[in-house]
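tool=predict chain=A
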Amino acid sequence: MKKLLYVLSSVALTTSVAAPIVIFSLRDDENVPETIIAKEFSYSNDLSKIKNDGKPLIGSHDIEVEGLQSVINDIKKTGADLKSNKYKLTYVETKLDTVTFPSINPHFDINRFNEILNKDNKYIKVINHRFEISQISAGNGNAQEEYSITLLADFEVRNNEDDDPKFFRNVRVTEVPSYRPYTDIEKTLKVHKNTLTVEYTIIIDISHVDNGPYIGIKMPEEGVVYYVSQVLQRFNGNAQNPPNPEDQQIAKELQAKILKYINEVHDIKLATIDTPIVEVWSAIENEKGKYELGRKLENNYELDYDINPYFYLAITSKNEAIGTHYVLIGNSKSAVD
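tool=predict ok
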């Protein structure tokens, strides 16, 4: 199952430090539920600076690499933070002064850029970033001179820092069409901003064992020692036929509270947890007063409060995540305790 979530990422500024980033190999799970998260990364360059670089306007002008380098670093770091097994650039929007160029018929070289971003390329360096102005027609009579512009970059990549480098040259990094004519080139030299949308494929892992009763759920005080089967009935709804509506409503509310808690702990957005809940585990208090996972308990096991003041419910969401979250639940004292 795949889900698509759109999340706005932080903006990269041209003042960021340019430094290649080294990312270690990420996990590549198979046959597990996947989620796709889309994040945006932006950087900009002030093209007006080239008017003072001492070169003729027509030709090639070196511009800052810091913004582009910072975005690449951020894209790779985000992949590592998300434990993404694959990610790719899917959309680019360029803004030149007040004009926006969307990635409808892409001019930005997305395919080559994705080769550079490949998760196996742990070392990526922008070695050149340049703005090129070409004259496409000469003024003749009443006709005005026309110019085209483009932004290009060269990259050096390695799988490992000691490997021989692979070079990607003349990679187009703007959505401004090369065939678009400009008559007043100096007025065109404004701020050029790229916004890149990168889709990350991630595998959500909810593996966790609560070491304290953080969820705040406790069995009701009814003056009895609960069996495991009774605990499961409370969280799943009474097994009567027909079902008791009140018991069903209590179970529904408890399941919703567990789902909300797991989403908060893992900072995720699962839609459901697996029901019925089928496993209860013992909780062992350690020397620090925290709880650890014990053994799986049979349905006919008596949860004596003096022995089991707390127990675990094993929670899964197999259509959306891997792993099991063991939620610590409070027991209640019986009448004889």
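The chain has five helices and 16 strands. The chain has two domains: 34-137+144-203, 208-330.
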